[in-house]
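Project channel, design review

CF: Before we commit to the Crystallibacter crystallopoietes constructs, I'd like one complete example in the thread so the newer folks can see what an input/output pair looks like. Taking Diaminobutyrate--2-oxoglutarate transaminase.
RD: sounds good, go ahead.
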Amino acid sequence: MTDIFETLESEVRGYCRSWPAVFERSQGSTMYAEDGKEYLDFFSGAGALNYGHNNPLLLEPLLDYLRSGAVVHSLDMKTPAKRRFLETFQEVILKPRGMDHKVMFPGPTGTNSVEAALKLARKVTGRQHILSFTNAFHGMTLGSLSVTGNSMKRKGAGIPLTNSSKIPYDDYFDGETADFLWLERVLEDSGSGVDKPAAVIVETVQGEGGLNAARLTWLKGLSDLCKKHDILLIVDDVQAGCGRTGTFFSFEDAGFTPDIICLSKSISGFGLPMALTLFRPELDVWEPGEHNGTFRGHNPAFVTGTAALNTYWRDDAFQQQVAARIAQLHDGLERLAATVEGASVRGRGLLAGVFFPDTETAGKIAAAAYEQGLLVETSGPESEVVKLMPALTITAEELERGLGILIEAASTVTGARELVGAL
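CF: and here is what came back for Diaminobutyrate--2-oxoglutarate transaminase:
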């Protein structure tokens, strides 16, 4: 029975329109519907389930914690669960990367992390303007929407979204312009009429904007430019972080460390709500309680987050496993893209997909894949990219099976029967 969803729930619902099954159970990379049908999940809770559904290595510590009578809700009060998470995050993530960033719990979601980052940047610098990028997505609250590019989502704000400007993301002009030439010039020209911004906010891979992946040299150039002009650099790692691009932070291979970092989605490891805003110690100018939130101290998320860090990030074994799955995924996507004229692989790591020049193709492939038991979504301003986000813990066999389903779906939609058996 699904009538209650149609009659009582708001029209704003989205994913359930593409995937109308009633999902009852889940384990690893598989979801099970009420009618018994199985679905291989290449969506992973929009990136909130990097370690799969109901991962037993995280579930058992959570169940033990809940049964113990320990504190569940604590705002920003001190608890043993928060202490263990902070100690583990410092030991396993920050120190090995030479980072001394402070950790802020801004609220339970990615947009909370972004809002805190924007507010802090303005407070530190005394400047109001924020630069963000074409096709960016940073969240659905007003500050996050102001630095988001998607016109449909921006329109939902209902008011003017001010104090931010959009600048071209890497390769926005198909490589026809020099990197940051315009920005460098206007920042140095007192007559340009462009005020120095408080910060620049960037995604290393634009998860919702079409899986545009910035070159590592471009990202390093952006970092250098911000340093030169005393502009704070914010990296929104909400979707691309926590290992999805192959390293814990998506910017690591670019050779720089941002001033401010936004994390959410898989930082709890289990799909529990949790977000962090990280920033250099000298930026910690908050007054006590100046930014707060009722659900910023979610102790079950501290428990599963600690378990995820201890289980997967204390050495490089898991990272090597992820690297193998990344190579397998991109090999399959390259062969798929090669069979459709004008198609190309987008993204980086296990945040990747295929762009199709016919803007209706990706949506049709995603729908056909669903009918065959595979969950994939689309990305881009016209939903022109089939987007894959399998769990980092997916097996080689599951990934191969999912790619096979995707190829079959693509062959059905495009009529390119030669796709079948391409893998």
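RD: helpful, thanks. The longest strand covers residues 23-27.
CF: The radius of gyration is 21 Å.
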